[in-house]
Amino acid sequence: MSAIDTYSLSPAMGYARPWYIQGWMRTLPLPLLEFWSFGLKEAISCIFAVSFFITLALSKFLSLGGLPRYDFVLMVALVVQFALVYSGLEIKKELIAISLFHLLGLALEVFKTAPGIGSWSYPEFAYSKLFGVPLYSGFMYAAVGSYILQAWRHLSVRLTGYPSHLVVIILAAAIYINFFTHHFIGDYRWPLTLMLIAVFWHTKVHFKPIAREFWIPLPLAFLLIGFFIWIAENIVTLFGGW
């Protein structure tokens, strides 16, 4: 089938008709339907991340009736997380992985806000604080994990040209170690970034919105994810959400 052929959703073509393509949409050209499917699946994958950062940004302006703002953000995050699992949009394996993201992020936040480090702080009162860090902060990291895991499933993501696992483990360890040690010795984030690009230079991310498989270089995927995280963080900062 060429890219300009009318898109047919016949079961004989090897894939079922998606619920979000009905009626007149079935007559649209294949590229438009692939684009629509990609955008919709990306949006579904971002539900937790978007809801979390919107809550964080707007919480400064809400009247919470004496409820500490950090506690409110935590409660909303937990409710959204429960709703995703209950509705089936998030599966239990993803919940376990996201919980690990949360714990890791919380540990990083505790280190960054420690008195001897002081990279940033959470000055407001909250009942749900651990070592001066609100528990909701771990969800900032879990939000990224939620997006990656759901996009992986919804878009049937696979990787090719993946480097040696040992090399990846060593590089990942170096990146995390630098996160801690740059307060005491030199900051090597840019050399590590160049190493990251070099290691994954030949790695491709393949994804399938509906029927056709597309790919982008993995370093570009890293760049795009980082860019949108940067935008989200700056929007929250603009609204005074931290």
UniProtKB/TrEMBL annotation:
Keyword Membrane on this protein?
yes
UniProtKB keywords:
Membrane, Transmembrane, Transmembrane helix
Q: Which InterPro entries match?
A: DUF817 (IPR008535)
Mind telling me which residue stretches traverse the membrane in this protein?
35-58, 70-89, 95-111, 131-152, 164-185, 214-232
> What's the name of the protein?
DUF817 domain-containing protein
Q: Organism, per UniProt?
A: Limnobaculum eriocheiris
